[in-house]
Amino acid sequence: MIFNHLLGYIIFIILSSKNGVLSDGGRKSVRFAEEPEIKSFKEYDPADRINHPSRMIFWGENKIKTFYPEQPPNMLRRVNSDLGDYRRGKYLFEDPIISKLGQYIEKLSISGKIWRHVWKHCPVYSSVSSKKFILLEKNFCTEINLYRKLHGSMPLKLDPYLSTQALEVAKQFARIGKSSFRKNNSGVNCKKIHFTLAPLVVNTWYKECRNYNYKHPGLQPLASHFIDLIWRGSVKLGIGIVKSDPYLCICFIFSPSIKVQNKFSENVGKAKYHFINSRSFFMT
C-alpha cells in the first residue's frame, strides 16, 4: 500500500516537471538563474600585453623598436633603425670619412660592392696616424686581389723586398713629383692624394677597365693601371706609402709584369660577374 503511494508521488513529480518545461504553445524555454554578463571590447586593443602607446624598447645603439597600440604584434614599425638600409641600396659605415667617400662609389656596380666590403670598417684617421700604414697596405692588397679574382687572376702576395723598393720610389715621388724607377719586368704605379681620399686609389684605377678594348688586346694608355692590377702573370706586390701632410704618396710595384704584345689576351681576362654572387667570393 505504501509502495503504491510512493510510486504515484514520483509519477506526479515527473508530470509536473514536464508541464513546467512544455509551455507557451509547446515551445521550449530555458530559464537562467542570473542574467548573462555582457562584456565590451575596445575596438583597437592589440591581442598582446603591450597596450601602452609608443612604448620603446632599446636593443642597442641606433636600434629602437616602437610599439603602437593600434597595430597587431606582427605589424611593428621600426623608427630610426639602421636595419633594412642594405636592401634599399644604402650602406652604413663606421668611419665618417668612409661614409662620405661611399657617396662617390657606384652603389650597384661590382667594383662598388668590392670597395664597400674592404673599406666599410676602416678607420682612416688611425690608419694614417701610424707611420707604418699596415692597415692601409692590407686593405689595398685585399681590394686588388678581389678584383683579380673577379677576372680569373691569382692573388698577389706582399713582398718585403718589393715593398722596400716601393717605399724608396714613394719618397722620390714625394720630393720631385715623379719616379725614375725602371724595371723591365715590373709595373710601377704612383699616386699623390689627400689622405682622406686614399681608399679611392685602387677603385679609381680599376674603373679604367671601361677604357680597355678586349677585341683589340694590347697596351692601351687609358687603361694602363687596370692592366697592372689584373695582369695574370704577376705574383708579387710591393706597396710603399709616404706621408707628406696632408697628402700621401703611394707606390705599387707589380712583379713580374712583362707586357708583351701577344700576351695580353691571356693575361687580361674579362670579368666573370657570376663569381660575385657566390657566397665564397669574399672569403680569403
From TrEMBL:
SUPFAM superfamilies the UniProt entry points to: PR-1-like
Keyword Acyltransferase: no
Keyword annotations of the record: Signal
Pfam families: CAP
InterPro entries in alphabetical order: CAP_dom, CAP_sf
Residue ranges of coiled coil: none
Protein's name according to its UniProt entry: SCP domain-containing protein
